[in-house]
Amino acid sequence: MRAPMISTAKLLKAYDRSRVPLYLQVAAVMRQRIETRYWAPGEQIPTLEQLEVEFQVARITVRQAVDMLRKEDLLYCRQGRGTFVANKTKDKRWLKLATDWQSLADSLKGNVPKLIAAPDAAAVSPMLSGEDGKSSGAYVFLRSVQFKDGEPYGIVNLHLAQSVYDLCPKEFRARPALPILADLPQVRVKSARQSISVGGADPEVADLLKIALGTPTVKCRCIITDAGDVAIYVADIIYRSDCVRIDIDLLSAR
Amino acid sequence: MRAPMISTAKLLKAYDRSRVPLYLQVAAVMRQRIETRYWAPGEQIPTLEQLEVEFQVARITVRQAVDMLRKEDLLYCRQGRGTFVANKTKDKRWLKLATDWQSLADSLKGNVPKLIAAPDAAAVSPMLSGEDGKSSGAYVFLRSVQFKDGEPYGIVNLHLAQSVYDLCPKEFRARPALPILADLPQVRVKSARQSISVGGADPEVADLLKIALGTPTVKCRCIITDAGDVAIYVADIIYRSDCVRIDIDLLSAR
DNA sequence: CTCAATTTGTTCGTATGTATG
DNA sequence: ACATACATACGAACAAATTGA
Predict the structure, then answer these.
(1) B159 CB neighbour count, 10 Å cutoff
(2) How far, in Å, CA of B241 to CA of B37, rounded?
């Protein structure tokens, strides 16, 4: 038995809260229903008439939404029969964010990020709030874009303490910094904290990740301090939100 | 010294990827700059002319964006002087998602969620994928909305195994289920896992949380199994994404 | 096979919103 | 502020394909 539809009657006011075109809003909801398999692959979705009623919009508006999803190969229509979900199922949510030191280092080991020119503007100290740690005087700024199947999915903006960078600069330019740092005997890591929140793509991020302006993103700030509470590694990582998930074992400490 | 502007030249194509009205896209970026304090409270923002150039849009479009933010009391204008960021600073990101059992139970203890009528449609087994655990035959469905300062910020959809619910039904209707469950001597918790991803509000969620359709949300699925690997607690929790953050101590296991 | 019901596809007219110069 | 062009959204009507009685 499939999960039944949850009532959505009389929700007209929700639309008023946004001036985003209606058909885009409707399409977004439908797209999510497909991706979450609420509408399973191959399955027939409700008729245009039913969708009109559910979303409380005109027929043309539903049509425009359906047309969008057709161009994305998520739906196909058969006149006189109905509209169906495509069969091919792309795997999403494949990127699992690490929640501990070991898995974080492991997940980065095989990575070959594409270093890109860092805007000189960013070659300054990262913005640190009190509890993040003291500022190392000088930082090196490294920036890379992560790809999967030729598609960009993440941007790493890393401020690395100059003193650490100088220990083996070539290494730091060739592969992810964190595993290197973990193996440096001179460096004593005292704390490593990660803070995650949801944001929207600004023009620069949108361009690098090839997504629309304002598309939701997942922002990770990872800060590592050394024995003297100096922040030696400050990474701001931005992912497309649609490929990320976080799995947490709530009992790992027991 | 403030963090300098990162180059945003020649990013026109980012706009093409979205059919969201330009002024909304521009407003979204500006709103984020204010919220992240990239534009600090009280500070003067660039002139309309500079913004025209940066965003590559017509003057009226920038004006529309500024007007939006003025209505939100995030900006104010002084003719002949410029446009400024408002001084009052609303605290966001106040909700820290728990990443371990103890803090999860603690964070819920004082909570008084508002139970709402559960659509009968949902009174079925939750959708479980293989590794989530076996299905307990019957579940009770409980639904509540969480408020802060009179504003809804989260929806809890909980499937609780009937056998567990029957141990003290009144309790489960009066306060959060998880602390109760933790204190029940009859229940042996074997695993507790949480999976977090980003989604968009469907019509129902948009209505309950008073947000626009498609607004990004944080979805948490929390599954607790008993000694027999039966999923006794399956919670789907949906938060507004703009109040949530996750702090992880990457070294907690060391 | 025909008929009616269903469902997608198309068109018209109108009103409003968006964006430019 | 104005004129212009295009996109969005509605309601309604009609055409075309499919299905089953």
Answers:
(1) 27
(2) 18
Gap from B120 CA to D11 C1', in Å? 34
Nucleotide whose C1' lies closest to the alpha carbon of residue A55: D9
The answer to whether A118 touches A159, Cβ cutoff 8 Å, is no
Instruction: Kindly identify which residue of chain A lies nearest to residue B105, measuring between CA atoms.
Output: A250
- Furthest CA-CA distance within chain A: 72
Chain A residues inside the 8 Å CB shell of B241 = 198, 216
- Residue B128, classified by CB atoms within 10 Å of its CB into exposed (0-12), middle (13-18) or buried (19+), is middle
Q: Which amino acid is located at B240 in the chain?
A: R
B52's enclosing H/E stretch is: helix B48-55
Which candidate, B18, B83, B75, places its Cα nearest to that of B52?
Answer: B83
CA of B52 to C1' of D3 (A): 22
> Which runs of E-coded beta strand occur in chain A?
75-78, 82-85, 95-97, 114-115, 134-135, 139-148, 151-161, 189-200, 216-226, 230-240, 244-249
Task: Write the pLDDT tens digit of every residue in A29-82.
Answer: 999 999 888 999 999 999 999 999 999 899 999 999 999 999 999 999 999 999
SS3 A191: strand
> What is the pTM assigned to this prediction?
0.87
Report the gap between the CA of A186 and the closest CA in chain B (Å): 19
